[in-house]
Amino acid sequence: MSQSLIYRDCPVCDSNAAQPHWQKGELHIVRCGRCSMVYANPVPAEMATGKFYDEAGQDYYLSVDKLESDYADVRFERELRLFRKHCPRGAALDVGCSSGAFLFQLRKRWPADYRILGTDASGPPLDYAESRGVAVVRGNFLENEELRVCAPFDVITFWAVIEHLAEPKRFLDKANSLLKPGGLCFVLVPNVRSFATRLLGRRYRYVYTQHLNYFSAPTLAQLASAVGFQVVTIRFTHFNPVVIWQDLRGGGRDISNLERAQLLRRTTAYKQSTVMKPLRMVYSGTEKLLGALKLADNLVMVFRKR
Fold first, then answer.
1. Which of 129, 169, 161 is nearest to 53 (CA)?
2. Check whether domain 50-305 has CATH 3.40.50.150, yes or no
3. At 281, is the secondary structure helix, strand, or coil?
4. pTM for the model
5. Mind giving me the DSSP string for 61-130?
6. Is residue 2 scored above 50 in pLDDT?
7. How far apart are CA 221 and CA 21, in angstroms?
8. Can you say whether the dihedral through the CA atoms of 129, 142, 12, 39 is positive or negative?
9. Would you list the DSSP string of 13-31?
10. What would the pLDDT profile of 247-290 be if each residue is shown by its tens digit?
């Protein structure tokens, strides 16, 4: 972990009354005594500023395995289905768009329905997004005035982004200001109350340095409400039994970016294989059950600007 650390108050309610929750190596995770938000404190400065993602992170985001998986048609099928249901057309901004795969799918499937734009802290993945025809705006999201020129937007998405942010409230507040009245914001984060997290605790691979925030449905809803959003819908999705099995056997060891990318490629191949269809039916049923019990791996919320 970087020797340069940033200490912070609760990212949801701003309280400084937190107690230790998990420790994993040098990573300290605490729980807020006021709102029960679970978050890392302190955090490495390179994570808080986004420097990591613009430098070391690109080896993962631009790896062959990661790009092939992200651009596979099955990659964002859940997100696209939910997105299409609530936003059948309009101007869409994807914050933390990485290599642009989600926006690419929007344009590929419904080219006449959306005006797409992506932004990210990391430059090299944006270069790739542009090479695939995805329009991007570069620079720090909180300070970037070019986005206001492009605004207002009908919808803004944060797919697996705000768990990485030292100041998630400021990001959602900025998103709110860029939306049209009644505009929508989609947020997907890991579910801190998932079956995997309950079973594995700090041994879970997604308890790691890059994740600064660990949201539950109540804490994410409270965060959104604080900046003027109202909750439209809540979903619990995704389930990866391979990850659970590997992390049980591994005892919480660090997982390299290479391993993460390779696993993503394998699970994408499982989704595409006709041979695996019977197992996918069992998997789908398990995922639906865990979702109904609010125990699936990810939490997804759709917010509306008041």
1. 161
2. yes
3. helix
4. 0.96
5. HTSHHHHHHHTSTTTTHHHHHHHHHH-SSEEEEEET-TT-HHHHHHHHH-TTTEEEEEEES-HHHHHHHH
6. no
7. 21
8. positive
9. T----EEEEEEETTEEEEE
10. 999 988 889 888 989 989 988 887 888 877 888 899 999 999 99
